[in-house]
Design goal:
alpha/beta; five-stranded antiparallel sheet; about 25% strand; single chain; 10 helices
Length: about 325
């Protein structure tokens, strides 16, 4: 079994990238989703990949809900990977972390179980270049760790970005990681051979221990996540889409606190809608699920649940 870690920050586009990887390689994959908290919206989104024609092979999506897989004091992640290898025996396992953990710790945990039947592919970090300064200001240690330990760094959401912004982002990345393969063009424009190559290169065991000087003294434990909070709501009383749009606009502006990621499914008037807030942008689409349920997730710092409930018409 070959393990590919697709890491990146909250809302950077990890799930979207994995769906493209599924579509372009058409290989039988198992995906292990490490959701933050109790939400499973990304897992549901990925599961549709096996039902909407983008993948011709069966797709298994597993959920790891026992905390962050980067916490080196826990063995549950390693045991889960071993169980997947023993029970499903896939050729490829794609691991999608939460987005707020350390890539170095994830690789250390995987190293514990690497043997002749389990090997590791060069890890990928998905990064939106327009938000580098935001990452540095708000999650600096995690930003440094993920970038410095990536073997491939893929820019996301760059279709309309300027050459100047991309050039400056590349300079910032190279200060931390001068050796990683850096993809600064829209990855959707890459050919199938490039996508298949992501599943074809084994990482050297010596690369597990390489660290950037700024990360060598970090402690890899649950303390990395103590400042992050999640609010999950299972009801909403918004009566029209204008209210939803205004609410999302306020989230993007920061009026609802420092929210790194928000997503959800809810019924507004007579239609089911899915929204996603990431990287200070938001989108709304019609929910395609046959049996949707209301679930609204907010991840950030110093969240005010009472305020969020009030804005959603729950108090």
């Amino acid at each position: 079994m070959k393990i590919l870690v697709v890491s990146g920050f909250l809302g950077a586009g990890k799930t979207t990238f994995i769906k493209n990887l599924i579509r372009r390689t058409k290989k039988p994959l198992v995906v292990l989703e490490n959701e933050y908290g109790e939400n499973n919206l990304d897992s549901r989104d990925l599961q549709t990949a096996s039902n909407d024609g983008i993948n011709q092979s069966p797709l298994e999506v597993m959920e790891f809900m026992e905390g962050c897989i980067c916490c080196s004091k826990k063995d549950s992640f390693a045991n889960t990977v071993l169980a997947i290898s023993a029970s499903l025996d896939p050729e490829y396992l794609i691991v999608e972390p939460t987005g707020i953990g350390r890539l170095s710790s994830i690789l250390e945990n995987i190293q514990k179980i690497v043997y002749e039947r389990i090997e590791v592919l060069p890890p990928i970090v998905i990064l939106s270049p327009q938000n580098i300064q935001f990452y540095k200001n708000n999650i600096h240690d995690i930003y440094v760790d993920q970038v410095s330990h990536a073997h491939k760094i893929i820019f996301s959401k760059i279709e309309n970005e300027s050459v100047e912004l991309l050039s400056e982002a590349e300079k910032q990345i190279r200060k931390l990681n001068p050796h990683a393969e850096l993809v600064t063009m829209p990855y959707k424009d890459k050919d199938d051979a490039w996508y298949n190559g992501l599943l074809d290169t084994k990482i050297k065991s010596s690369d597990f221990s390489k660290q950037h000087p700024d990360t060598k003294d970090f402690e890899h434990d649950d303390g990395d996540h103590e400042h992050f909070e999640q609010v999950t709501l299972y009801e909403s009383n918004l009566v029209n889409i204008t209210e939803l749009i205004q609410f999302l606009e306020d989230i993007v502006r920061g009026d609802c606190g420092l929210i790194f990621r928000s997503k959800g499914v809810l019924k507004v008037a007579n239609q089911w809608l899915r929204f996603d807030v990431a990287d200070r942008l938001y989108g709304i689409i019609c929910e395609q699920s046959d049996n949707p349920q209301v679930q609204l997730v907010f991840i950030g710092k110093e969240l005010d649940e009472s305020y969020l409930r009030n804005r959603l018409g729950l108090t």
